[in-house]
Structures are given as C-alpha cells and as structure tokens.
Amino acid sequence: MNKQAQSTTKNEVVEFDFSTIKTFEDACAKVGVDPEKLPDVSGIPEEFAKPVIAAYKLMIIYNAINNGWRPDWSNYDQYKYFPWFEVLSSGFGFSHSHCAYYYTHAHVGSRLCTDTSGKAKYIAQQFETEYKDYFLYSE
Known about the structure:
The protein is 34% helix and 12% strand. It has helices at residues 24-31, 46-66, 117-126, 128-135; strands at residues 81-88, 91-99. The N and C termini lie far apart (51 Å).
C-alpha cells in the first residue's frame, strides 16, 4: 500500500513533514488537544510540577510527530529511537540519537521514542526547553 494513502491498518503511518511541528501549540493542533488545558499539578510538591507538565508536553509532541506510529515493545525487529542528552559543566545539550531494539531499559519512557533517528534528533533540538524542564531541577 502506498504510504501516502490514508490507511486504516493499525500502526501504519501516513507520511507527513514532521518539521511543521515547531511548538507545543502546533503539536496540540495536530492531535486535537487544547494547549491551555495542562495537567492539574496543584496537589503535588512544587518541585515536581514543572517536570510533570514537561512530560505531558513531550508526550503530546511525540504523539504529533509520530503521526500514528506506536512503539511495539514486544517486537524486537522494530527500531525505536530517542534522543540522548548530556549534562556537563558547560550546560545541557543534545548528544546523539540512540536506538533500543533488542531489549528495554530505563533510559527513556516508552512513549518518548520515534521510528526514525531524524525525528528523535529534531525533537531533541526543537524542544530542548521541554527536555530541560523534564530532566533538570530548576528554580
């Protein structure tokens, strides 16, 4: 089946230019979510509020960019890519894209992966602020 054609087969992806998703608001528009409705974090300690919101935003962003693709963690032949960051004395930055295909481990949440290295790199670079809020303590 032509990938450009609309499909009803589970987990088959219709191609689109993922680089059109430049903001959290763009991602929300693509998946039909109101960007103003963020998770209620009033009942958790303040230090955890920012990373919870950032995780939510990243899940929406990945959902939009993945365009229907879902990782199948029981399929060892399906490559899954996620960005790898390093925190050095000079700051926080994207290091490279990593692929986990033969086993799972706790480097990244299962929702925060893509089917291509290019998408993982794009998300890391375009949404670095969301990753900083998710991974790092901040005031």
